[in-house]
Design goal:
single chain, alpha+beta, Double Stranded RNA Binding Domain, 2 domains, 3 helices, 6 strands, 25% strand, elongated
């Protein structure tokens, strides 16, 4: 009789443990999705820009990015993307917008893409246009730069 109770207890324990693991796995995925809402590998940008500058002007460019980010309450991160430290990535985020910028393979060309953070709550395109117009003003303070709004494909 005691052995039968033990088997029942172990069976109930295994069923509850399996149920708990399923809940943890499912809620873990939901949390990860909520913390990292964008996946730019599949999302299309709302807007894109290209900035051309001299290779030695990165410091000026980054200072203008920081000013822009501060004005619009974006968190900003600037990282080198190669061991030489000549190519960089810029990542800016706000509550609803994500901006990703990369040095291209073409020296002196820096490309930026503007994304909706949440596809289900898109930001009006006019907001992106206003941000881009403001960013352009900051970039034009750097001598010998060009700023071009690109067609989004």
């Amino acid at each position: 009789m005691l052995e039968k109770r033990t088997k029942i207890f172990v069976l109930i324990f295994l069923v509850l443990a399996t149920f708990a693991i399923c809940i943890l796995i499912t809620s873990g995925k939901a949390r990860i999705t909520a913390l990292n809402p964008s996946d730019n590998l599949v999302k299309s940008p709302a807007r894109a820009v290209a900035i051309t500058l001299d290779q030695g002007q990165h410091d000026q460019l980054f200072e203008q990015f920081r000013k822009f980010a501060a004005k619009h309450a974006f968190a900003i991160r600037i990282d080198p993307i190669d061991p030489t430290g000549e190519n960089f990535r810029v990542y800016m985020t706000s509550e609803d917008i994500e901006i990703v910028g990369l040095d291209s393979g073409d020296p002196g060309l820096f490309e930026m893409w503007f994304y909706n953070m949440y596809e289900e709550r898109p930001v009006p395109l006019s907001v992106f246009d206003e941000l881009i117009a403001d960013l352009k003003e900051y970039i034009e303070e750097i001598p010998n730069t060009t700023f071009t709004v690109e067609e989004v494909k």
